[in-house]
Amino acid sequence: MSTPAIAGGRPVRQEYLIFGQPDIQQPEIDEVVATLRSRWIGTGPRVKQFEEAFRQYIGCRHARAVNSCTAALFLALRAAGVSPGDEVITCPMTFAATVNAIVHCGARPVFVDCDRRTMCIDTTRIEVAITPRTRAIIPIHLAGRPCEMDIISDIARRHRLLVIEDAAHAIEARYHGAKIGTISDLTCFSFYATKNVTTAEGGMVTTAKETYARRIEILALHGLSRGAWQRFSDDGFKHYEVVTPGYKFNMTDLQAAIGIHQLRRVEENLKRRIAIWQQYDEALRGFPLELPPPPAPDTVHARHLYTVLLDIEALGVSRDQFQAALHRENIGSGVHYRAVHLQEYYRQAFSFRPEDYPNAAYISERTLSLPLGPQLTEKDVSDVVTAVRRLCEFFAARRKHQA
To answer: Domain tally for the chain?
Structure first.
């Protein structure tokens, strides 16, 4: 066992491996330059091109681009009529944006704990949380793993509830032959810098309902009856009407210019993610950490995050201490997530306690995401494996000695 950097040894690598760095290639750079030269840098033809390319990739009827998945979630809720006094069921094992969108609509978030193994919402607990005020369910396809959508859809139909999927991690995902983005009332995607498809910042809403799509388009740009592209196109200026007090949530052509080419490589990149995933599975099996379970039958996992659960009892250190030691090896990592019910605002506003959702709390203390992406070289992957194994062996041996 080699000595880790925290104990005076040399780090696994000299150059820091940044967690979640985007895979930006020359086509994106060229497209951004062409966009700048076109002088159309706001919402225009490239946004429309990206929307259509995404619509075709997902296989949905409508796709509307916005400036973030947070905006997508909020607009989806608004377009579907979720309003103050309503309740929306979701899972606390998510990024705060999922729940923030509910609160910004004036609705109340109602949590259902996650399954400890899959980290997705526990579908056996959903119906218990339904009340006369429940309006919608937001399942989160955490790390790219599809939730049990057949069960969720059945519950929603029987109780006449909306389903708005948080697919921020799940662009490539499929569930029982259906592409995520074609199953529910509305589905929201993210193109943040770390996502499998990035536009630096950006989001998309897919839906089969034209009324939802039109409502989102209007709300995303000040409530105008016509978007900027329609108002200032080569057909000449057209007057607009403010039909509702909307927001400034539109995507720009500069963002879409990146996404157009990112989307073209998404399936090729997924193959590389799967290969790295399998390398991690092989190399880390048998160490004091729980590996992500394999995809469920008849599903496609988007492989957005390779997340392990540390056996902190066997290691004798906290997740944060392990992560800090990994940082000393010049390996970046992530935490996905510290559950929302543990966050200060939500603890105070809704009187949530850690024990209310024990599985989410358990994961929050142990979860660690390792670097995963098509830009990683074989050496990068080998360095991650070496660093994790080195630290597991070091901490476990120290723990055993102390005992």
So the answer is: 2
195 is catalytic: yes
Residue 54 has pLDDT above 90, yes or no: yes
- pLDDT at residue 58 in the model: 98
Which one of the listed residues 179, 195, 209, 379 is annotated catalytic? 195
Show which of 264, 286, 302 is a domain's final residue. Answer: 264
| pLDDT per position as a tens digit, 302-361 | 999 999 999 999 999 999 999 999 999 999 999 999 999 999 999 999 999 999 999 999
pLDDT band at 225 (very low <50, low <70, confident <90, very high): confident
Please report, as a single letter, which amino acid is at residue 98: T
- Residue 233, pLDDT score: 58
> Are 97 and 73 spatial neighbours (Cβ–Cβ below 8 Å)?
yes
pLDDT value of residue 330? 98
Instruction: Single out the residue of 103, 83, 111, 147 nearest to residue 295, CA to CA.
Output: 147
CATH number for the domain that contains residue 389: 3.90.1150.10
Q: From its phi and psi, is residue 124 left (phi > 0), alpha (psi between -120 and 50) or beta?
A: alpha
What is the domain-level CATH number for residue 138?
Answer: 3.40.640.10
pTM for this prediction: 0.96
Average the pLDDT over 5-32 and give the result.
97
